[in-house]
């Protein structure tokens, strides 16, 4: 099955549209202009400084809260969240808004609570959400989305992570994608390739679309380094 999945993805990627590969991974790999968008007409430049790493690097135990011992505890063992974060830099004095459009694939075979895929899940689960930040001052910032522990336990670890960054006019200013999945090459927009997103094996989809990906401000992670993040739409 694994060999068949790889062949399907490799075949699909042969027809995929590849973005121009930058010399460094922290350059706007998915921006429309290799030199970066110009301030006039396309807002100011946005530089991706650090991409999230797929796999266990994104799986973190929830932060502890002072006084938590005073309330009931249902789980005696720590549970890990999927926490996907990127760091970026802006250069305009203030940007009105930036929208991050996230695309994440979880791999079922890495789910510890679903060994041998006893529940018959598709090999991969696809999650997508957008987060809009407002009044972004010039400097370094972070953007982050999360999935609660049950998603990691049932659907597995993130193996492909991508996003684009756009301004209020919808112009894509930056973006990138990293992948540990054979046949899905880093730097490509796999979510726009229907031969990948609609791939099947034995008449069943290899990727199932699911909901649940949320901005960190709606989770316990909102309490960690809050000054790194700008205000979001509530």
Number of structural domains: 1
Strand content: 35-45%
Radius of gyration: 19 Å
Helix-strand pattern = HHEEEEHEEHEEEEE
Largest sheet: 9 strands, mixed
The tally of strands reads 11
Distance between the termini: 43 Å
Helical run tally: 4
- List unreliable stretches of 5+ residues: 1-8, 10-27, 33-42
The SS-based structural class is mainly beta
Question: Could you estimate the helical fraction of the residues in percent?
Answer: 10-25%
| Mean of pLDDT | 82
Shape, please?
globular
Give a brief outline of the structure.
The protein has 234 residues and is mainly beta. It contains four helices and eleven strands.
Q: What does this entry look like structurally?
A:
The protein is mainly beta and 234 residues long. It has one domain (2-35, 43-62, 78-232). Helix content is 12%, strand content 38%. It contains four helices and eleven strands; from the N terminus they run ααββββαββαβββββ. The chain has helices at 2-14, 39-42, 149-155, 194-197, and strands at residues 46-50, 59-61, 80-107, 124-147, 157-166, 172-179, 200-201, 204-205, 207-210, 214-215, 231-232. The strands form two sheets. Strands 1, 2, 3, 4, 5, 6, 9, 10 and 11 form a nine-stranded mixed beta sheet that branches. A hairpin with a 5-residue loop joins strand 5 (157-166) and strand 6 (172-179). The longest helix has 13 residues, at 2-14. Residues 1-8, 10-27 and 33-42 have low confidence and may be disordered.
């Amino acid at each position: 099955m694994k060999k068949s999945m790889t062949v399907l993805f490799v075949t699909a990627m042969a027809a995929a549209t590849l973005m121009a590969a930058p010399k460094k991974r922290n350059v706007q790999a998915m921006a429309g202009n290799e030199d970066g968008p110009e301030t006039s007409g396309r807002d100011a430049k946005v530089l991706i400084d650090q991409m999230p790493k797929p796999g266990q690097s994104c799986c973190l135990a929830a932060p502890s809260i002072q006084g938590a011992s005073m309330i009931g505890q249902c789980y005696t063992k720590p549970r890990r969240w999927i926490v996907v974060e990127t760091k970026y830099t802006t250069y305009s004095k203030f940007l009105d808004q930036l929208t991050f459009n996230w695309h994440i694939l979880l791999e079922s075979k890495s789910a510890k609570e679903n060994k041998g895929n006893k529940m018959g899940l598709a090999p991969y689960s696809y999650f997508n959400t957008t987060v809009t930040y407002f009044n972004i001052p010039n400097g370094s910032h972070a953007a982050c989305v999360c999935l609660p522990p049950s998603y990691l336990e049932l659907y597995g670890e993130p193996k492909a992570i991508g996003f684009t960054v756009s301004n209020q006019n919808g112009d894509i200013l930056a973006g990138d994608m990293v992948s540990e999945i054979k046949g899905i090459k880093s730097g490509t927009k796999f979510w726009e390739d229907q031969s990948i997103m609609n791939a099947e094996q034995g008449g069943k989809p290899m990727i199932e679309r699911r909901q649940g990906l949320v901005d960190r401000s709606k989770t316990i992670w909102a309490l960690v380094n809050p000054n790194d993040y700008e205000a979001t739409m509530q």
